[in-house]
Amino acid sequence: MTVTIVGSQLGDEGKGALVDLWGGDADIVVRYQGGDNAGHTVVEDGEEYKLSLVPSGAVRDKVGVLGNGCVINPRTLFSEIDDLRERGLDPDVRLAKRAHVIMPYHRRLDNIEEEAKADSDLTVGTTGRGIGPTYEDKAGRRGIRVGDLLDPDVLRQRLEYVVPQKKALIEDVYGLEAGEECDVEALVEEYTEIGRRLREDDMAVNCGDFLAERREAGDNVMFEGAQGTLIDIDHGSYPYVTSSNPTAGGAATGTGVGPTVVGQGEVVGIVKSYLSRVGEGPMPTELKDDEREEELADFIREKGGEFGTVTGRPRRIGWLDMPMLRHAARVSGFTGIAVNHLDVLAGLDEVKVGHAYELEGEERLTMPATTERWGECEPVVKEFDTWPEVDWAAVAEEGYDAIPDAAQDYLEYLSDELDVPIYAVGVGPGREQTVHIENPFDN
Ligand code: IMP
């Protein structure tokens, strides 16, 4: 049995809480794309864990795998693992030998390129973690993979080829000075040592084989998508995207299992009850048109804790965007959804969703394929009855029927429009603050 968890908006939908909740029935939790640009907060026994690379399942004694579709910064990885160990956990993390490694020059180049774009509308607002440049090298067939770290000769050979290119780029194209990030000897030394630790701790695996063996032995697997559909390199709002595929297809290419395996399981879209966005790009339902909307956005931002887990940046806030969700449900083939942060909208004077878009006088239910056209879309708004602040902990305990009627209407609208059942409703940040409806592992 497999369950794939996909962010259906712009990331930060609260996937970690659901991965953590249902991950209890998984034996293995596998990330299939992205790197330390992600941020998931997991609350376990009142303890809060902020992770960016280690799969959240690892907090709950599951095997956590970083698939070949991921880009891995070993410095972040080991600092997170060491931190979890200091807090008394013993995470079992495996890395695909085919996954690419984020090197110090990737981070430097990510920041240099953002800086170079700063005065144009091409700025992406990346997390500065070197994600894009690492995927560029992967596609350019000049990347360093986890498997290369295990073989010092191969590592040296690859670095001797690629580093002079990076140095030339930094110095000759951008007119800056290259530093330690382009020191081949220092890199060979540091990354050989990392390879030694990977070998010693038996962390590097052939991901596809590893998962096949474990599935054959009867293990349940959860595929944990990072980021969200709208920042998918193929299906998102290009160029304001990350450089990988958070959509469900990525679970197959990013781990080495067949698409049929992913497709025979459940694919659950995680939806936040409203919208947030870090970084640039259109957002038709953004709350920013007048002072009242800005106040509302501030309120939601504070109440929902909408500040980047990785960068601390305040997130832009908007109403739920249905054309975006219809697009997400189709691209990933959702079999169900979980709706988070319903409590954040409680007690507001108004609750709206962008039901459709208006573009050149025509109403449309899904998103245009180009970001420029998307930016021209005006939301066609649907207003809902508001719901009051209630004791959400009690609601979580009592179940779906205890959710205020108006909020149930909101949820049912969502489920009807996307034509999928709702498996869970998040009414607070902790795992226990979730209204359980169905566990996808039981299907
Ligand atoms: P990158 O992934 O650092 O290259 O950033 C590319 C775009 O994706 C930027 O707009 C980021 O703000 C956005 N992004 C990357 N990771 C996340 C995430 O985990 N949540 C939300 N946005 C993200």
UniProtKB/TrEMBL annotation:
Sites where the protein binds GTP: 11-17, 39-41, 315, 341-343, 426-428
Cofactor names: Mg(2+)
SUPFAM superfamilies in UniProt: P-loop containing nucleoside triphosphate hydrolases
Active-site residues per Swiss-Prot or TrEMBL entry: 12 (proton acceptor), 40 (proton donor), 138
UniProtKB keywords: Cytoplasm, GTP-binding, Ligase, Magnesium, Metal-binding, Nucleotide-binding, Purine biosynthesis
Entry keyword DNA-binding: no
GO MF annotation, one: adenylosuccinate synthase activity
Main subcellular localisation: cytoplasm
Residues the entry annotates as binding substrate: 309-315
Residues that hold Mg(2+) according to the record: 12, 39
Superkingdom: Archaea
Cofactor binding, note field: Binds 1 Mg(2+) ion per subunit.
Binding positions for IMP per the UniProt entry: 12-15, 37-40, 127, 141, 227, 242, 313
Catalytic activity: IMP + L-aspartate + GTP = N(6)-(1,2-dicarboxyethyl)-AMP + GDP + phosphate + 2 H(+)
Pfam name, any one: Adenylsucc_synt
One Gene Ontology term from the biological process aspect of the record: 'de novo' AMP biosynthetic process
Record family assignment: Belongs to the adenylosuccinate synthetase family.
Listed HAMAP family: Adenylosucc_synth
NCBIfam families, per the entry: PRK01117.1 (NF002223), PRK13785.1 (NF010357), purA (TIGR00184)
Record's protein name: Adenylosuccinate synthetase
Native source species: Haloferax marisrubri
